[in-house]
Amino acid sequence: EKGGFDTFMRKEIHEQPAAVADTLRGRIDESGQIVLDEVRMSDQDFRDIDKVFIIACGTSYHAGLVTKYAIEHWTRIPCEVELASEFRYRDPVLDRSTLVVAISQSGETMDTLMAVRHAKDQKARVLSISNTVGSTIPRESDAVLYTRAGIEVAVASTKAFLTQLAACYLVGLHLAQVRGIKYADEVSAVLDELVAAPGKIAKVIEDLEPVRQMARDCASAQRVLFIGRHVGYPVALEGALKLKELAYLHAEGFAAGELKHGPISLIEEGTPVIAIVPSPRGRSLLHDKIISNIQEVKARGAKVIAVCEEGDRITKAHADLVITTPASPTLLAPLLTAVPLQEFAAELATALGRDIDQPRNLAKSVTVE
Ligand code: M6R
């Protein structure tokens, strides 16, 4: 049942190209229009939206954070992202023209469900993104877009996360298409790249051996830090969450710009720092900034692992290990850069003797508060 892999998590990491391809299948027509008929929201419904709120927990929240960058850039509609457990206990400003997107792999997370009810009480329109057909959150939502990751057994979310990103990109691009398109060329180019993503994810998966080796080398670390900017920031948060939950090791993700505001004091000789480097194409300013951040942590003794786009000028002179991912538009890069971090966490946790499919104290579906 593990398909030749030692654990479900490793099997699920390898299933990611197919899971993303399945999630896109049939949702982009031959003329390059996104077809989301199944969600039963008309184009006019999408045009009426003037604000988006994304609510989720854990890894699904990280997918939401990435989506904010994409939706605001492609559509210019304001988009907020909030942990469901916070959203449900406050008074968010919502109305009929607010689209609330609830992301939940299981469709049963109690806080997310309660947040959905809270949003519906205020007449917002709720679209859920879920991997579980017929689960409670989709049933209580106005509309649903299913990810097609297949059953995810390992507690740590991997393929569900990548398919959530794919589904969220579809929603963002669909919103852009139905609303008169300011970035028409960019949207169609991004769609082509989205369709190409599964092949690129497969390429990343083929090249994971150096990550595994580095993960074993880091197994005696006291803590591991992850830094990123722009969409690399939620990827850093996700990398840290994976490591915490699997290895029981202190791990934190930071916006790289925050380093000097506190976290840099955590760095000691040998502290592993994983930097998610934005593509030097397009966002060269951000790229320069992260190189400075890498130099700052390196000067304080950090062991730096840089995850960057192939062809990047970052070399062994900057980082102890350079992991490259295929070129991709910045907003889609998380589909690729998250993968080495999944493997890093799985391998480091395995080196520490952890049960990576069933970490202590955790359940696959959090149906209690
Ligand atoms: O089923 P959901 O997507 O609502 O679950 C949310 C979180 O409990 C989940 O993503 C959790 O953080 C994962 N175990 C992380 O790998």
UniProtKB/TrEMBL annotation:
Entry annotated with the keyword Phosphoprotein: no
Record GO terms (molecular function): carbohydrate derivative binding; glutamine-fructose-6-phosphate transaminase (isomerizing) activity
Cellular component, GO, one term: cytosol
Assigned EC number: 2.6.1.16
Residue span, SIS domain: 42-181, 214-359
Top-level class of the enzyme under EC nomenclature: transferase
GO biological process: carbohydrate metabolic process; fructose 6-phosphate metabolic process; protein N-linked glycosylation; UDP-N-acetylglucosamine metabolic process
Organism this protein belongs to: Glycomyces paridis
Active site: K364
Catalysed reaction equations from the record: D-fructose 6-phosphate + L-glutamine = D-glucosamine 6-phosphate + L-glutamate
Assembly information from the UniProt record: Homodimer.
Record keywords, A-Z: Aminotransferase, Cytoplasm, Glutamine amidotransferase, Repeat, Transferase
Coiled-coil region(s): none
Protein name: Glutamine--fructose-6-phosphate aminotransferase [isomerizing]
Function according to Swiss-Prot or TrEMBL: Catalyzes the first step in hexosamine metabolism, converting fructose-6P into glucosamine-6P using glutamine as a nitrogen source.
Localization per Swiss-Prot or TrEMBL: Cytoplasm
